[in-house]
Write a structure and sequence with these properties.
Helix content: 25-40%
Strand content: 15-25%
Strand order of the largest sheet: 1-2-4
Order of helices and strands: EHHEEHHHHEEE
Distance between the termini: 39 Å
Number of strands: 6
Shape: globular
CATH superfamily: Glycosidases
CATH class: Alpha Beta
Radius of gyration: 17 Å
Length: 169
């Protein structure tokens, strides 16, 4: 991408795999774990880019995220709406936009993250390039009819977060 260093990150995607879906350590399946992990990754990105740019001033941050959309049956629509807001969270945080009036701000303050949001907003690290990843399994479908799915596909926040497309076999 040119001279210097290009740092890449997928903070929200990683936070979901570690904190919401329980696939990798710390194998959590709750929203507080997701936000803690995401905020930690945003802080690590901000602080790392500051240190890198002291040595390589032309370094650029390339922030990529899975751009999947969540669809839902009507009883799960509020969760799908929340998930669809959450997919922008790493970018909104890095740009310093999660402040009063942002659709996620009150929710995060209620979860105890007000001070962290203030610190991030006061010292943002806007990405130089925003990348959108979209895979065949990126889109999700939340279904309130859990009896239709094996227990390992039941979501922590209600509904079954099934990929819209899954490989057979």
């Amino acid at each position: 991408m040119g001279p210097g260093l290009d740092a890449r990150e997928r903070a929200a995607d990683n936070g979901a795999v570690f904190g919401l879906y329980g696939h990798w350590y710390p194998h959590q399946r709750d929203e507080a774990a997701f936000w803690t992990l995401l905020l930690n990754q945003v802080d690590a990105t901000r602080l790392s880019m500051r240190a890198i740019r002291r040595v390589i001033p032309a370094a650029r941050l390339v922030q990529t995220e899975d751009f999947g959309h969540t669809y839902a049956t009507p009883p799960c629509q509020p969760q799908a709406d929340h998930d669809n807001l959450r997919r922008f969270a790493s970018w909104d945080l890095l740009f310093g936009r999660v402040v009063p009036g942002h659709p996620l701000h009150r929710h995060l303050v209620d979860m105890g993250f007000q001070r962290r949001l203030e610190v991030i907003a006061a010292d943002p690290c806007p990405p130089d390039v925003v990348g959108l990843n979209h895979y065949v399994t990126s889109d999700r479908f939340l279904d309130h009819r859990l009896e239709r799915y094996p227990p390992q596909f039941h979501g922590a926040t209600g509904g079954s977060p099934m990929p819209m497309s899954r490989p057979s076999g």
